[in-house]
Amino acid sequence: MPLLEAKNVTIRFGGLTAVSDFNLTIEPHELVGLIGPNGAGKTTIFNILTGVYKPDEGAIFVNGKATRNCKPFDITALGVARTFQNIRLFKELTVLDNVKIGGHLHYKYPSASAVLHTNRFHGAESIAEADAIELLRIFNLEKRAQFYARNLPYGDQRRLEIARAMAVRPKLLLLDEPAAGLNTGETIELMAKIHEIRDRFNLTILLIEHNMELVMGICERIVVLNFGKTIAQGTPEQVRSNPVVIEAYLGEPVEA
Amino acid sequence: MKRLPWWLRDLIYGAIFIAALIGASFGMDAIHIVGIAYYQRIIVLMGINIILAVSLNIINGHAGQFSLGHAGFMAIGAYFAAFLTYFYFAPYVNKFPVGTEQFVLQNALLLVAVLLGGALAALAGYLVGLPSLRLRGDYLAIVTLGFGEIIRVIILNIDKIGAARGFTGIPNWANFFWVYLFCGVTILISWRLVQSSVGRAFLAIREDEIAAEAMGVDATRYKVKAFIIGSFLAGVSGGLFAHFMMYLNPDMFRFLKSFEVVVMVVLGGLGSISGSIVAAIILTYLPEGLRLAKPFLHIEKDPRMVIYSIMLIVLMLTRPQGLLGRRELWQVLSRRKEAPTEEPDATSRS
To answer: Cβ A101–B200 below 8 Å, yes or no?
Structure first.
């Protein structure tokens, strides 16, 4: 069974059809890239997949379950975590608390045990702390655990967002431009990290990226989007040499 | 290190706290200086305002939902608790001869009345919360403001509880002990919640609702939760207020009262529990303390509210983040420990 299936998804904002008849099937443990020029509808697709927008037509299935009536947090509970293009950290909270909130679904207890400090509270909190520190260690952020998120350098904020999403313990991780604003060295490091967490946590990853080096380097399959439509799909080599893709990025060849 | 069972630990601390309160109560009763009653009154009112400010801080400061209806919740608790004691509990208690039995019964029934007042306020918080929490920011503020006014107008039209005449003859059962007991309970609830997964969910919603939902936080549910807890405590403070003042009037719960509490929370620093406490203490004393200004300045008209307003303006201009910002008192006092988080911003790029 595919982990994620989008069938004939269409969404319109007023007169603009942002995504039209979009189909995507992702099998477990795949690493898929979603590319396209600016305004192609990539982030809109992420927002549909995570329940922020409701599609006008079509349906999304996560693990075979239709997400039509799911709120964003229900979809998170199905094992889908995401990062945001324009970093959305909890800026006034510490790095550690950011990651702990990512694990929100896993450390629940009634408010009463929080107020009374019952054993259940202490148990859940110590696990939450240990898990969060473990994740911070994976992303080399453990030394900054007590910093406010807003005070982190930009690259660390990007990594913290991924760490926070990993705290959800997702099956499917959606990364929205994880390398945006990173320099070459940081991008290479990030690529290695994405590979590492995929193998370690048996993740399936869908990522949006403009950095072709990263996309071509790590994705097994690439979906190309333009004006809300899928224009090409295939391995990096196939996509790279596809004339439709080249046209979308560079424009039509001039008649000689 | 082996931890004591949670109930035993809290029981011991609770007992120490109660003993200290009883001691302080007797201490206050034992002082006989002319004019001391005035200061004792201010101290009790400070306690009531601390409960109000700390409970509003859960809604405004932690969950980030701008509510202007706190006086409404307080009014519900005040009137319902007063209604219960005036019509049911007090006549019953008065059948007993003065003595230990009556004393115990009176205090137990006060507790019941205050808690039921809080419960009804919590119910109102739930009812307001459910539909209106889909609104954000200014819109929510307007809805809660309207709600507070509706409550006041409803009370104004119920003749049985005094309507515009006010509710008189409420027994004087609340005192220093009860007010500060609930003060302690309020601070404990607020503090422990914010350290828990519930509090983290509140803070996450305040910081970024979309990101919070992406992390699996059911934002609406937690906002309603914050409203229920906050309005319950506001109702409790209302019940205590009624039994301390012995008189209620719908005009006490105008939106000005809501603003007063909002000012305390904002002045103390949104999200800072100790900030709310400090601001509640200062803002309760300030209008009283400034009565000294008139004889001091030798002027005919009383300038205290002018000075009060100017002080608020100056404070907000010099410390727009509030007295303590988002930190707690001890964090502000030990700046050194906070040093790494206070680094100059490295985020100008974001």
So the answer is: yes
CA dihedral sign of residues B194, B197, B198, B200: positive
Residues of B in contact with A71 (CB under 8 A): 213, 218
ipTM: 0.92
CB contact under 8 A, B198 and A76: no
State the pTM of this model. Answer: 0.91
Question: Tokens standing for A168?
Answer: 């959800």
* Domain coordinates in residue numbering, chain B: 10-28+35-253
CB contact under 8 A, B195 and A114: yes
- CB atoms B214 and A81 under 8 Å: yes
Contact A118 B218 (CB under 8 A): no
Between the alpha carbon of residue A173 and those of residues A4, A186, A201, the distances in Å are 11, 20, 11
Name the packing angle between helices B219-245 and B100-132 (round to 10°).
140
B338 close contact with A: CB closer than 8 A: no
User: What does the pLDDT average to over B271-296?
Assistant: 90
Of B11, B15, B228, nearest to B125 (Cα)?
Answer: B228
Chain B nearest-CA distance from A242, in A, is 35
pLDDT (tens digit, 9 = 90+) per residue, B119-153? 999 999 999 888 777 787 788 899 999 999 999 99
pLDDT tens per residue across span A89-124: 999 999 999 999 999 999 889 888 899 888 889 999
Which chain B residues have a beta carbon less than 8 Å from that of A105? 216
Give the helix ranges, DSSP H, for A38-170: 42-49, 72-77, 95-102, 111-116, 119-138, 154-166
Q: Rounded to 10 degrees, what is the CA torsion of A76, A79, A83, A89?
A: 50
The residue in chain A having the minimum alpha-carbon distance to the alpha carbon of residue B207 is A90
Q: How confident is the model at residue B346 (pLDDT cuts 50, 70, 90)?
A: very low
Residue B347 has pLDDT above 50, yes or no: no
Strands A172-176 and A57-62: unpaired
